Amino acid sequence: MAEAKLCSIATILNKSDCNSKRLVGGYSERNLTELTKSEKELLLSRTMLTSLDNLTTICEHHERYFSLDKQASFIGGMNIRSCYNPFNLHSNKRKASKVISLSLSRNTLVIPQLIVGYKLCIECYQHAASLNVKKQENDNVVEYPAMESASSFGSNVEFGLSEQKVDENMGNRKLGKIFDSVATELSSALNITLLNESGQNSEDYSKLLKELKTKFNASTSFTERKQLLTLAPSSWPRSRVAEEFQCSEYIVRESRSIYSKFGILPKVTKKKSGNKISEENKLIVASFYEESSRFFPGLKDSITVINKDGVRRKIQKMLLTENISELHYLFQQQYPNIRIGLSKFFELRPRWCIFAGAPGTHNVCVCIYHQNPKLMLEAIDLSVGYKDLLAMLVCSLQNEECMYMQCESSRRCGNCPSPDILTEYLLNNIFEETITYKEWISSDEQGVHMVATTQHIEEYVTKLVGLLQKLASHHLIALRQSAYFKELKQNFSSEECIVMLDFAENYSILIQDEVQSHHWSGKQATLHPFVVYYKTSEGIKNKCYCVLSDYLKHDAQSVHSFLCALIPKLKVLVCNLKKIHFFSDGAGAHYKNKYNFANLSFFQTDFQISAVWNFWASCHVKNACDGIRGTVKRLFRQHALRGQEIHLEPIDLFNWGVLNIPNVDFLYISSQEIENCYARLENRFNRSVTVKGTRKFHQYAVLSQGKLKVSILSDQPNSLLSTTAIIVPPNFVPISVSDLKSSDCVAVVFQDKWWIAIISEIEEDTDIVNLRFYMPAGSDLIDGSGLKLPRRRKGADEMALSVSEIICKLPPPPRRNRGSKLYDLPNETFVKIVDTFKEFKHWRLDII
């Protein structure tokens, strides 16, 4: 076996970890001569070596280990977030806030020397500073011969100066004072007046500076102001120039930059403007803002804007889900070819897309799965967010197996890091012993409410890791469902459409000048918006619908009734419509239940269209229906408050909306229509079966009548996260051609009655059978009557029917007596046919 390579650093430090498994490309090294001066000094400090002489190479692992290229959280395998206590001033671990610089390491008298890049707490940092001062007092002392030559004029004390030794700068200052003192003594002894040219010069200088300030303050041109500042004294620091001229340090820095290149009062050329944003890219930015926000559902959540034609119109407000920096970063990731700065990106924000914190942006639909971990992290001083902690639990945030199986230890990905690693990381980076945080909890007495919880660090970390493991699957579903909708919206065909639907809160019909008691007995109307996306030759279009009803319950039969009114309109809107993609929230009362799934499994039979029903992740609904219901309710309310017309019933709202809200297509479904629909669906509902694990599935696709394919993620319908579910088990099992042969006696359905017949011929290719009927129909039999089988004549009492009309096979009915032309039907056979005929009718009712 080949001997492992070692660099010079590993050899002298007696280490053998140059070939670390963390190195993807294997062993690599650099020559020490390639290191910069600062990197060499860092290496000396962090290895505690006195010299790099006779050392030639350093490997990639030790470059990372001693963090020569960056300020890392770990240096030399040690966590530098806490104080490394070089002076042994404290026994417990303390939070570090001061980084050891190269100058502090050099100037501090301590053995071993302070390690550059490590951190100190306040107490250790102050102690190091005190050692630094002592070193300056003891070492930085310089004697100057000039001080001794002044003895011919007298000692320092004679001139009012101290006799202590000083450094070079102090010596120069004292020498200047000595010259001034000597000149004063000589002028006094010789009775000579000293010329005060400096006073006159100072007055002229002050006058010139005052006029320069006046000119600067009067100027409104940024270019001219930069030119004037080139006349400011170069000995002044930028802060003093900014203070004297009452300007920003930025313009001072700009003026000194051009002064260093062109001198005073240069001719400043205007900078060329950058690349202009095209109108097309501006529309992309505006569209991105709308995609990254969601509509406010409230009546008053609107804003008035004036378009290019000067027309004022109201637009429903939209709440942005991220701050401006995060949105700009996401835009750059999504559109890398569009170069746009943060300020311009903010400038292009549509007025109706507003940030949280503005008046009226109280957000009450936050996801509890995301919010509780966020609240726990807000209680500690940790530089990472919940997404960074999630990344420490899995191989990839995009891998559904890693993310979804976090809470199932037996099914977790074998390559995912152990949760113990995250636990250890949190314990090493949280310095408080007890932590108090806020969280949302649910109880039977108070419902969902926020409480303050205090826990010891071990309990806190265990709970946080558990919540993050539960959050992993929910976080994946939220991202993937949103991405699937966006991708589908761009790629669906012209024979498909996307339908977004959502119940609004029932609208209370408003009457201006109503009596007080009417407030508690007023009528309401159900509002159910639909937003339809479809394709034309001009691109993707959308159409808005809103169903109004006096049926106030939100249940599966009302949803089916609304769809029965909507589908015919969609067939007109989209030519040759073959498939509908539904998107809704997971409300169990009306969408995500066995009754709605039973209707979905019969969608092809009911409407001759295929369908797929997709659900958003809980509390992550991005639905344009919020904008429709907010707009419709606001317009209804405004009209009612004018008092010009009184609406008493939901049908009145419907009639007014059809005439006055042209952008929304209104439909009206009465409560009687919904009750009639329930009567037709009752048998289907009674036979429906609950899908095990309904809440975890987010796509339900029709396979066949009564059968659905259910998937956890919409974009992975064929993965291991999918299964098949029977929603409506059939009581009646149709007979196939292979079960029949000529001369069999069967019961068939014809003209809504059941008959006894003999099979004379079978056409297997077409599933057609030729039958000879016994007379009369079995449904018309009375006690004591018998069946007759007519003579075989060509075309007499024979008929060709589909196999699907056959109820069941029977034993041939016996003759009443020898030589009789009548046939008797035994009672047990009669009962069997009657029961089977009832099941057959129920089955046929489902497919009508």
TrEMBL record:
<feature type="domain" description="PLD phosphodiesterase">
    <location>
        <begin position="61"/>
        <end position="84"/>
    </location>
</feature>
<dbReference type="GO" id="GO:0003824">
    <property type="term" value="F:catalytic activity"/>
</dbReference>
<protein>
    <recommendedName>
        <fullName>PLD phosphodiesterase domain-containing protein</fullName>
    </recommendedName>
</protein>
<dbReference type="InterPro" id="IPR001736">
    <property type="entry name" value="PLipase_D/transphosphatidylase"/>
</dbReference>
